[in-house]
């Protein structure tokens, strides 16, 4: 646990704690309750936005329908650029879900004053500032990576792990997991650092100084969602096309 304290004459004015969690006991599992609460909020927000956008769809989109169609077109273009015209369509839902969940999660931590909601332990924050969330997203990318390669090439996909020599098998397997995991640590570190910087500045200078940092945090949060989704699509494309394979013109 980390503690940040502003306390003239030993009288605490405010504090920021990292490491306290609200735990739920589910069978033999102990889970972070506050992460589930905010994750459900983000998922609910996305579901409601989708329902509102499609409930009474118009030929000329307006309002929430226009926003959701713009998001869909953006994700579709991102997937097409990374996966290619012939392979991108089945992966649009997966890449889009990753991007929208991370984007809304990041912005919820920057825009919603979660700390005003008191919990018995811990505090509410963006789900992506918890390493468990980002590692879970990375593992989903790893599973998608293996599934894409196996679906395209069958058992022949696994031949790449013993090329050019079987001695490299452990390294090849480790590489497939470390690439998405590096994304998870980058996302977790950036979101947690942003929230800590803003919280400390609010404690020290609570008026105008934190505002530019908060705006920068919104920008970097959006970039982190884009980077995660883009590299996830790139890894899936690598599994489909193979390491170092080149397309030959007819």
From TrEMBL:
GO-annotated molecular function: proton-transporting ATP synthase activity, rotational mechanism
The record's PROSITE patterns line, in alphabetical order, gives: ATPASE_A (PS00449)
| One cellular-component annotation, GO | proton-transporting ATP synthase complex
Transport recorded as keyword: yes
Family annotation (InterPro entries)? ATP_syn_F0_a_bact/chloroplast (IPR045082), ATP_synth_F0_asu (IPR000568), ATP_synth_F0_asu_AS (IPR023011), F0_ATP_A_sf (IPR035908)
Transmembrane feature ranges: 31-53, 91-111, 131-150, 187-209, 215-236
Keyword vocabulary terms for this entry = ATP synthesis, CF(0), Hydrogen ion transport, Ion transport, Membrane, Thylakoid, Transmembrane, Transmembrane helix, Transport
> Subcellular location, in the record's words?
Cell membrane; Cellular thylakoid membrane; Membrane
Topology in the lipid bilayer:
Multi-pass membrane protein
Function, as annotated: Key component of the proton channel; it plays a direct role in the translocation of protons across the membrane.
User: What PANTHER family does its record include?
Assistant: ATP SYNTHASE SUBUNIT A, CHLOROPLASTIC
* Family listed: Belongs to the ATPase A chain family.
Name of the featured protein: ATP synthase subunit a
Q: Gene of origin?
A: atpB
